[in-house]
Amino acid sequence: MTQIYYDEDFAAELMQVTSKRIEEQIIHDIELLPTVPVLGSTDLPASIKQLYGDHVRKIPVGPFDVIYEILDSGDFLILGLVHQRTAR
Fold it and tell me: For the CA atoms of 25, 28, 30, 32, what is the dihedral angle to 10 degrees?
């Protein structure tokens, strides 16, 4: 069974989201990953590639991008939450 793992940085970043609706949408979209693994895009801003590498994907949710990678095992690692305005 596919697992979703969370980097500790993601948990801290999620706590900064002030909208309950957006927080719930972020969690909802992450929970879709086992059924739609390529939900996110590989079209990444340079700042995200520099921070996480070019092998990650992003899911746009409101003003944020959820950054994740698909592990060799098929599991998912949620790496971070980046405000879209800061990603260039």
Answer: -130
Phi, psi of 62 (to 5 degrees): 60, -130
Q: Are 18 and 88 in contact (CB under 8 A)?
A: no
Question: What does the block give as tokens for 39?
Answer: 């939900």
Separation between Cα atoms, residue 28 and residue 88, nearest integer Å: 26
pTM over 0.90: yes
Cα–Cα nearest to 27, from 72, 71, 59:
59
More confident residue, 86 or 43: 43
Q: What is the pLDDT of residues 22-59, one digit of tens each?
A: 999 999 999 999 999 888 999 999 999 999 999 999 99
The SS3 call for residue 59 is strand
β-strand 76-83 against 4-6: which pairing, if any? parallel
